[in-house]
Amino acid sequence: MIFKVTSVPEQIARYLAEKIVLLELLPGERIVESALAKKLGVSRVPIREAFRILEKKMLLELTPRHGAKVTEMPPHFVESLYDILNELYVLATRKAAVNSQDVDKRRLAEATKRVEDSATSAEPIAYYDAIFEWESAIRQAAHDTLLDRVIDDLSPSVRRTQFATLSRRGDELKKNAQFLKDANEYIEQRNEEMAVQTILAYLKNEKNFAMKLPMDGMYDRPPTKKKV
Fold first, then answer.
1. Which of 116, 147, 206, 225 is the most buried (most CB within 10 A)?
2. In CATH, what number is assigned to the domain containing residue 114?
3. CA–CA gap between residue 80 and residue 17 (Å, rounded)
4. Could you tell me the CA-to-CA distances from 50 to 3, 40, 69, 162 in Å, in that order?
5. Does this model's pTM top 0.70?
6. How many CA atoms lie within 13 A of 123 on its CB side?
7. Both 81 and 61 in a single domain?
């Protein structure tokens, strides 16, 4: 789940966010406010509020008199996204190595096992779900609310790139699972430096995949996943 749903606009935002992340709505695609309001059986007011939520999450671009369109992700955006993630996850990893408690370590171990299992069985969709469970676990282990909120704002964009790369993963799933397994072990040992180096290697691999997406037209060939 990308948003904690408490209101109609947030429910609509979550509905649209899932479609954008799963590439049912592609970069550059326009969303007609009136048509969406009719489809969902609501007025335009919550639709507009939902659009503003998604604009803050960098999933929609709002232009006066032109409405809303799904944010495009050119190479410079993807590069900047992963450069920022490097810094944020280095900080999260350091904090997790220092601040993680027994419950955090159990959560990380369980998430790591799910990543490994899905990689071993070559199930990309299960891997996709497990990888974000792991990333959520390390954020919780860091025990830094502000850091968690900052990463959460970038999470939808990361999910888009991760989902789009699934059809090309192949043996890379096992490689990434090993990165996270190693990082988890270093965090348990409270070995900050080795945990950080492992996470940086993982993120470098992710960035290399993500940078190919706009150039290779991968947004036009999303993998199959059950619709929300």
1. 206
2. 1.20.120.530
3. 21
4. 11, 12, 13, 24
5. yes
6. 13
7. no
